[in-house]
From TrEMBL:
InterPro entries: A-glucoronidase_C_sf, GH, Glyco_hydro_67_C, Glyco_hydro_67_cat, Hex-like_dom2. Residues 556-566 have a biased composition (Basic and acidic residues). Residues 536-547 have a biased composition (Gly residues). Pfam families: Glyco_hydro_67C, Glyco_hydro_67M. Signal peptide: none annotated. This is Xylan alpha-(1->2)-glucuronosidase. It comes from the Bacteria. Keywords: Hydrolase. Residues 523-566 are annotated as: Disordered. The gene is aguA. It comes from Plantactinospora endophytica.
Length: 754
């Protein structure tokens, strides 16, 4: 049952019921170390609830630890096999053990292999992290892990560094608040300059991250101001305290740093990266960090970007800056995430020769090959800024000698700010699967995965050296101290999905959504102690713990759990599967981007950025709309892509419709590949998008009062859907009216445009 205790964080995808299958079995855990302790504790909690047993055999201990009924033969074995050879004895069937052991040897520090034979499920990993990820894999499998025999399956993450970037401020920023672009309450780490004071929430967060596959996080905003600079010095203990909380779940802490920290802290007159005093200052800072946090991950840096300090002030380039910090971290195995989000944010809108889309490529590609091996260049997925539709950034294709990370945004700055349902899994999946050199050639996922490693057990992503591989994936967090973590309860799915896609970019995002639904809204079987009134949470109705629609929760015999589940699953898919495209339909059309209210970026303002300094224009006039980024007549941005995309984007006939206005300025009556004119497409999609939201709302209303989901959660989503509809109508009316007035072309269907 989904907890509704408003004073505690929502369990998200780890409610106790998710552990039902594991908890009902007899488990043997082999191995030592913090993460194995975590596995043992997790199984221990589950078995206490669901009646199984757990024993532990440690490398050192002579006597096994036990919990629950004694001496029951294990039917689940979770074992560390560091050298590929499984532990001898116990319940491990020898033949399965050696088969799995052979697999595990090549799976690296986070991989695991499992099989089920003769009524025993066996999971082996070469290192403790693998055992932890294996446990959460079993959680996802649920009863399927304990049914018929299962052949050997091997799992390892495609991307070794999977990091959540928090734009959390230490001090409350006068404009941005406690969390920059945060739509889920305050920060889980900081409040008014001090630690937020809820260690249990941070632990619970780490657990959720591990369960979806993430392994690192930054704890402060990339815009580093005020007290945040001091996390490097006298506030280091606060960072160490967070690291201690998240370590048991395999999460490493990274820190965003201010490039000018030695100056802003008043310790040096310069932050010149080639100045020996500066280099020594950072080396000392790194030494202090690793003394306090031995597994510290490294630095994230936003330099020479939107007013943040950087190496340009000293006539040095980004490689000089990043390498200086990399050298400070290298002795300890740390990495520098150096952001490629660099552009002129003081552009003159009259100047048509400057194109913000070009900026990252122009700044960084000349530096390819100059970065240290422990520098990761962190590239936003699109060339502009997390718009609802952008092409993939060409920087990712043009730096073969640099470790690259893909940066995506779970916080819905430009996608409805967690008031609108917008499941971004399909978007990220498209980006990860995009093949910049055409079908059959490398994908974005493979570019950020880097060269395949040999599974030699090197520390995940942090070893430095070319063999350390790619830079993985960075996601800007959508989490805050809200009860549901993400403001909109359904936005939890975005965090879940990003972890799963970072682990396995080929996953179908709709299947990932199914996983999230099954875990988050578990079916309570008859006989579940938690589904009895008064047990576990507060007795609010939960999925499957109720009777038929409209009857009292927990009322007994007339349950139809399968039908209920299908109703709920169908409702959630109806709301979420296509929600990203729905959002796209009622907002900025055909890849043109922005048209949002300046500053906070919520709701429509078609010309809000048109005459500003930010470089995000649509150039609509009486004849047409869109940005000419062609080589033939525009900014030449299409030339930053390799073939075949360079030519496809260049060609008016071949450019995909959904990016047409990103690449071309066209007349309103230009006919799209779909057969519609541009202006008619704008009208049609804006009407359709709003209709879709209205249908989503009706669908959600239908399950109100049914007990299929917790009442408070239902109400929260219902409120937000009402706001989504209001806002979508505003978008529709402003955009349609704007283009009717500009173009003078009436709607072919005569619908009402104002
Ligand atoms: O999307 C923009 C946001 C800024 C953010 C910046 C960035 C942290 O509007 O709030 O600053 O991107 O990515 O650095």
């Amino acid at each position: 049952m989904t907890s509704t205790d408003p004073s505690r964080p929502h369990p998200a995808w780890l409610p106790p019921e998710a552990f039902r299958a594991i908890g009902a079995h007899h488990t043997l855990v082999y191995g030592d170390g913090t993460l194995v302790d975590t596995v043992y504790d997790e199984v221990g909690r589950a078995r206490a609830r669901y009646g199984g047993t757990v024993r532990r055999l440690s490398g050192q201990a002579t006597e096994p630890e036990r919990a629950g009924a004694d001496e029951t033969p294990a039917d689940l074995v979770l074992a560390l096999a560091p050298t590929g050879s499984p532990p001898a004895g116990g319940a491990l069937p020898a033949e399965v053990g050696s088969e799995l052991g052979a697999e595990v040897a090549g799976l690296g520090p986070e991989g695991f292999a499992l099989a089920r034979r003769g009524g025993v499920t066996v999971l082996l990993a070469a290192a403790p992290a693998g055992l932890l990820y294996g446990l959460f894999h079993l959680v996802r499998l649920g009863p399927a892990a304990f049914g018929a025999d299962r052949p050997v399956e091997a799992h390892r993450p495609a991307l070794r560094l999977r990091l959540v970037s928090h734009w959390d401020n230490l001090d409350v920023h006068p404009v941005m608040g406690q969390v920059e672009r945060g739509y889920a309450g305050g920060s889980i780490f900081w409040r008014d300059g001090a630690p937020a004071g809820d260690p249990e929430r941070i632990r619970a967060y780490a657990r959720l991250l591990a369960a979806c596959g993430m392994n690192a996080m930054t704890v402060n905003n990339v815009n580093v101001h005020g007290t945040a600079t001091r996390l490097l010095t006298d506030r280091l203990d606060d960072v160490a305290a967070i690291a201690d909380l998240v370590r048991p779940y395999g999460i490493r802490v990274h820190l965003s740093v201010n490039f000018a920290a030695p100056v802003s802290l008043g310790e040096l007159p310069t932050a010149d990266p080639l100045d020996e005093r500066v280099r020594a200052w950072w080396a000392k800072a790194a030494g202090r960090l690793y003394e306090a946090i031995p597994d510290f991950g490294g630095f994230m840096v936003k330099a020479d970007s939107e007013g943040q300090p950087g190496p340009y002030r000293y006539r040095r380039d980004h490689a000089d800056g990043a390498n200086m910090l990399a050298d400070a971290l290298a002795p300890f195995g740390g990495v520098v995430h150096w952001r490629a989000f660099v552009y002129n944010h003081r552009q003159d809108w009259r100047d048509r020769s400057t194109d913000r889309a070009r900026a990252a490529y122009d700044h960084f590609t000349p530096l390819d090959g100059r970065f240290r091996d422990n520098v990761i260049l962190q590239v936003k997925h699109g060339p502009i800024d997390f718009q609802v539709r952008e092409p993939v950034s060409p920087v990712l294709t043009a730096m073969p000698n640099t470790r690259l990370a893909l940066e995506v945004q779970a916080t819905q700055e430009y996608t409805g700010q967690q008031r609108h349902v917008c499941y971004l899994g399909p978007y990220w999946s498209e980006v990860l699967r995009f093949a910049p050199w055409g079908p059959g050639r490398p994908t974005v996922a493979s570019l950020v995965a880097g060269p395949a490693d040999d599974g030699d057990g090197a520390p995940a992503g942090n070893g430095g050296g070319a063999s350390a591989g790619g830079g993985g994936l960075v996601v800007v967090s959508n989490v805050g101290d809200d009860h549901y973590w993400t403001g909109h309860p359904l936005a939890q799915a975005n965090l879940y999905a990003v972890g799963r896609l970072a682990w396995a970019p080929d996953l179908d995002p709709v299947a990932v959504l199914d996983e999230w639904i099954d875990l988050t809204f578990p079916a309570s079987a008859t006989g579940d102690p938690d589904s009895e009134p008064g047990a576990g949470s507060d007795g609010e109705p939960g999925i499957g713990s109720d009777g038929e629609l409209g009857t009292e929760p927990d009322s007994g015999s007339d349950r139809k759990p399968d039908a209920d589940r299908e109703t709920l699953r169908g409702t959630l898919h109806a709301l979420m599967d296509d929600s990203w495209r729905t959002y796209e339909r009622y907002t900025a059309p055909l890849g043109v981007g922005f048209m949002v209210a300046p500053g906070h970026h919520y709701g429509p303002d078609v010309d809000g950025y048109e005459y500003s300094r930010w470089g995000t224009y649509h150039f609509a006039d009486r004849d047409g709309v869109g940005v000419d980024r062609t080589r033939a007549s525009g900014t030449g941005f299409t030339g930053q892509y390799p073939q075949p995309w360079s030519d496809r984007y260049e060609s008016l006939a071949d450019c995909p419709d959904n990016l047409l206005l990103f690449f071309h300025h066209v007349p309103y009556r230009h006919v799209l590949r779909s057969g519609a004119t541009v202006v008619q497409h704008i009208y049609d999609t804006h009407f359709a998008g709003v209709d879709q939201v209205a249908r989503m709302r009706r669908r959600w209303d239908r399950i109100g009062g049914s007990g299929l989901v917790d009442a408070a959660l239902h109400a929260r989503v219902a409120d937000r859907l009402a706001e989504q509809q209001r806002c979508a109508e505003e978008w529709r009316d402003q955009v349609n009216t704007y283009f009717l007035r500009k173009s003078g072309v009436p709607d072919a269907h005569g619908r009402r445009i104002h």
